[in-house]
Amino acid sequence: MSNMPDMRLDPYPWYASMLETNPVTFSSEFRAFLVFRADDVRKVLSDYQTFSSAIFDGLSLDLPFENQLTGMDPPRHTQIRALATHAFTPKAVLELEPRMNLIVNCLLDEMLAKQESDFVHDFAIPFPITVIAEILGVPDKDRVKFKYWSDVIVRISDRLLSGLSDSLPEHIAAYNEMTDFFRSLLQERRRQPQGDLISRLALAEVEGRQLTDMEASNFCVILMVAGNETTTNLLTNAMRTFAEHPDQWELLRQEPRLIPQAVDEIMRYRTSVQFITRIVKQDGEIGGVKIKAGERVAAFLGAANRDPAKYENPNVFDITRPSGANMTFGHGIHFCLGAPLARLEMTAALKEMIHRVDTFKVPEVAVLEPLNAINLLGLKSLPLQIIGR
């Protein structure tokens, strides 16, 4: 991306410029049409007949991403999502709330005992890893592998999105290890079901159809990444943003009823997944620009969430902003299945923090280093000096 700014730490000035001057444009660096306006992004994500999700098909024989739910189109997507939804119910998510509160407070105990903590490593990583591992039913002894596996998947996706489809022996080995692990656990749960998500996936049935081991294990992979990496970045972005806007933190402490709006505003203001890629199945147009079958389109969720046509003062962080639909979790048939879980985790974290944390700030000498992945907005670490209540 030699002709483009480094978007990993602060892409928003560039988004503002593109929204105003080039809302749909071809990028030789991305080798795709870039789409920025909210209405156009929504069209790309909802019109699956024109914009296919099967972007990884044929890119690498060693990594069959087309078997993942996020890489499928209807009718196969419809059937497998119905089965996955049947197992991953809102009720199952809500039942974890008391356990989430305990995890949050244990992590806060450790952070508040220090003069300075790294929010990413002390809280944003272990919290969602613990939660999603408990949801899936992964034994304690295997949880140390979770972060490594999640990072591997992100790196593979990042390379494939960049067109680097050559063999990646280390990554392929880790991917196969991960899917083998989930397949083995699924087979064990079929013999001896427990009250966890893997058991429900193993036994889920809709209209006489069950998930195959491959389909169920790939869904576990998606949940592991979405329930881990994405939430880690949402939490990190929340604390980074509140550190920059201490008046908004104080307002939230004084008015806890604003937590649902604050969660929405954090996700809108700093969207953790910046864009979603689609491949064009048939000739069409987007934003008045003609596109041809076989071309690629990158729909920028982060830009859509700052579109002045949809939001008043879009570059202002305001937790009193009325809640409304944003593009953080996508749109259409691929709307993120894990959205309720991410919201609940964010809510649980903020609810406990406003009672236990008075103020916090990023040390002046701290250098914020962005993640390497071009598609994710987050930090490798976030040093915080915290004063408890």
TrEMBL record:
Q: Name the PANTHER family on file.
A: BIOTIN BIOSYNTHESIS CYTOCHROME P450, P450, PUTATIVE (EUROFUNG)-RELATED
- Stored InterPro entries: Cyt_P450, Cyt_P450_B, Cyt_P450_CS, Cyt_P450_sf
Give the keywords, sorted.
Heme, Iron, Metal-binding, Monooxygenase, Oxidoreductase
Q: Which PROSITE patterns match?
A: CYTOCHROME_P450
Q: Which family does it belong to?
A: Belongs to the cytochrome P450 family.
Q: Which Pfam families match?
A: p450
User: Which named protein is this?
Assistant: Cytochrome P450
| Keyword Secreted on entry | no
Under CDD domains, the record lists: P450_EryK-like
